[in-house]
Automatic annotation (TrEMBL):
SUPFAM superfamilies: Thioesterase/thiol ester dehydrase-isomerase. Residues 153-282 form the Acyl-CoA thioesterase 2 C-terminal domain. The keyword Hydrolase applies. It is an enzyme of class 3 (hydrolase). Pfam families: 4HBT_3, Acyl_CoA_thio. GO terms for molecular function: hydrolase activity. Belongs to the C/M/P thioester hydrolase family. Residues 33-109 form the Acyl-CoA thioesterase-like N-terminal HotDog domain. It comes from Streptomyces demainii. Its EC number is 3.1.2.-. Keywords: Hydrolase. This is Acyl-CoA thioesterase-2.
C-alpha cells in the first residue's frame, strides 16, 4: 500500500476489541510524539462507530492531555452519553500504556430545515495555479532536502499556500497573523461520510497554528518554538468530500502567556462554509540545541 491517501484510510480503520472499545495503530515514524490530528481523527471514528450512522457529526471538543508515543497502539474507550430524538452524544478517552493522552466529546445531529446564511469566502486564487509545497521549498533552497522529501512521500494531503511563503526576517516584517492554504487528499478516500469527516479532522490539526507563527518565524525551516496542540474544537456545517479541494483560512486573534489561539474556516470551491475550527497551542522557545526543521 503506497498511496498516502490509502494509508490514511487504513490509519482511520480502527480494530474493534469490545462493544465500545477500539484500538488504533500509531505509525512508527521519526516523530517525538504522535500527531494530534491522528488521535483526534481516530477518536472521532470510534465515536461514530457506536452510532447508527444516520446522524452526521456536527461538533467536537477535545483536549490533548499528554504526548502520544509513536509506534505504540492507542486504545479508544467510548461512553454512550446520550441517544436523543435529534442528537447523539459520545465521549471518547484515548489511552496509551495505561495513561489517558486525549479526550473528546462529539455530538451528532439529524439534518433539519432552517435558516441559511454565512459570511462570504475570501477572494483568493484557485489551487491549480499555485505551487505545491515541495515546489515552494525547492524554489527557495534550490533542492528538496531528503528529510522533506521523505515527509512529502508519506503526506496524505496536497497543500498549496495561497500567498508565497516568507523565508527571511525582512519578509516577516509587518506580516499579519494569518495564513490560507488549499488542500485535498492526494487520492480518493471512498464514499463513507464518516471517513471524510475524520480525514478532515486529521487535516485540521496540520497547520492551524501556522497563523500564530507567521509574524515571528518562517513556517518551514529551523523552528524556534516547541509547539503542541492543547485543545481543539470543530463545527461541521455542511457535507463535504476531503478528496476534493477545500480552502483552509486561518487567523490568530491573540498569542500571550506561552499560548497562541487560532481560528480556522474551511470552504469548498463553491464558497460554501463547511467547517469552523478553533485551537489553542503551546508555544515555548527552544534552546539553540533543540532547534529542528519544521514539518508543518
Amino acid at each position: 500500500m503506497t498511496n498516502p491517501a490509502e494509508r490514511l484510510v487504513d490509519l482511520l480503520d480502527l480494530e474493534r476489541i469490545e462493544l465500545d472499545i477500539f484500538r488504533g495503530r500509531s505509525p512508527d515514524e521519526s516523530l517525538q510524539r504522535v500527531f494530534g490530528g491522528q488521535v483526534a481523527g481516530q477518536a472521532l471514528v470510534a465515536a461514530g462507530r457506536t452510532t447508527d450512522g444516520h446522524r452526521p457529526v456536527h461538533s467536537l471538543h477535545a483536549y490533548f492531555l499528554r504526548p502520544g508515543r509513536p509506534g505504540v497502539p492507542i486504545v479508544y474507550q467510548v461512553e454512550r452519553v446520550r441517544d436523543g430524538r435529534s442528537f447523539t452524544t459520545r465521549r471518547v478517552v484515548a489511552i496509551q500504556q495505561g495513561r489517558t493522552i486525549f479526550n473528546l466529546t462529539a455530538s451528532f445531529h439529524s439534518a433539519e430545515p432552517g435558516i441559511e446564511q454565512q459570511l462570504p469566502m475570501p477572494e483568493v486564487p484557485g489551487p491549480e495555479g499555485l505551487p505545491s509545497l515541495a515546489d515552494e521549498v525547492r524554489s527557495h533552497l534550490g533542492t528538496l532536502p531528503e528529510a522533506f522529501a521523505r515527509m512529502e512521500r508519506r503526506q496524505p494531503f496536497d497543500i498549496r499556500y495561497v500567498e508565497r511563503l516568507r523565508w527571511t526576517d525582512e519578509e516577516l516584517q509587518g506580516a499579519e497573523p494569518r495564513s490560507a492554504v488549499w488542500m485535498r487528499a492526494v487520492g480518493p478516500l471512498g464514499d463513507d461520510p464518516l471517513v471524510h469527516t475524520c480525514a478532515l479532522t486529521y487535516a485540521s490539526d496540520m497547520m492551524l497554528l501556522d497563523a500564530v507563527r507567521v509574524p515571528v518565524e518562517p513556517l518551514w525551516g529551523p523552528r524556534g518554538f516547541d509547539m503542541a496542540s492543547l485543545d481543539h474544537a470543530m463545527w461541521f456545517h455542511r457535507p463535504f468530500r476531503t478528496d476534493e479541494w477545500f480552502l483552509y483560512e486561518q487567523e490568530s486573534p491573540v498569542a500571550t502567556g506561552g499560548r497562541g489561539l487560532a481560528r480556522g474556516r474551511i470552504y469548498d470551491r463553491a464558497g460554501r462554509l463547511l467547517v469552523s475550527v478553533v485551537q489553542e497551542g503551546l508555544f515555548r522557545p527552544l534552546r539553540p540545541a533543540e532547534g529542528a526543521a519544521d514539518s508543518g
